[in-house]
Amino acid sequence: MTLIFRIVAFLEGISYLLLLGVGMPLKYLYENDSWVKGLGMPHGLLFVGYLILAFLIKDSQRWNTKDFIIVCLASVIPFGTFWVEKKYIN
User: Fold this and answer.
1) How many whole angstroms separate alpha carbon 72 and alpha carbon 90?
2) What is the rounded distance in angstroms from the CA atom of residue 31 to the CA atom of residue 59?
3) Residues 15-62: pLDDT tens digits?
4) Which helix (H) or strand (E) holds 73?
5) Which of 11, 52, 60, 86 has its CA at a distance of 20 to 30 angstroms from the CA of residue 67?
6) Rounded Cα distance, 64 and 85, in Å
7) Domain boundaries, given as residue ranges, for the chain
8) Is residue 76 within 8 Å of residue 52, measured between CB atoms?
């Protein structure tokens, strides 16, 4: 289960960076929202999957409530999921 979490955390982080770094500039600078539409749904699914998997592995990783909240909040910060993977996953 931890390996799956690592993969989802990586993909969620990449999709978030693409959404913020490519999709949003194209939407607002060139009025082209096709990238936001194309990246939004996969990112949303990965985001929900990340949170569900974090909940499922919190006991096996021995996260206390504070650690679990940090892991969850990291998903809304650019590069946060990459940091979580290095710091919190054993």
Assistant:
1) 17
2) 45
3) 999 999 999 999 999 998 898 999 999 999 999 999 999 999 999 999
4) helix 65-73
5) 11
6) 16
7) 2-88
8) no
Could you please report the per-residue DSSP string of 4-62?
HHHHHHHHHHHHHHHIIIIIHHHHHHH---HHHHHHHHHHHHHHHHHHHHHHHHTTTTT
Residue the block writes with tokens 């990783």: 61
84-to-1, 35, 37, 58, 90 alpha-carbon distances in Å: 16, 27, 27, 13, 11
**Cα separation values, 83 from 12, 13, 26, 34, 89, Å:** 12, 10, 27, 29, 10
Instruction: Name the residue type at position 15.
Output: S
Task: Give the range among 8-17, 69-78, 81-90 with minimum mean pLDDT.
Answer: 81-90
Question: pTM for the full model?
Answer: 0.90
Evaluate whether 82 touches 16 at the Cβ level (below 8 Å): no
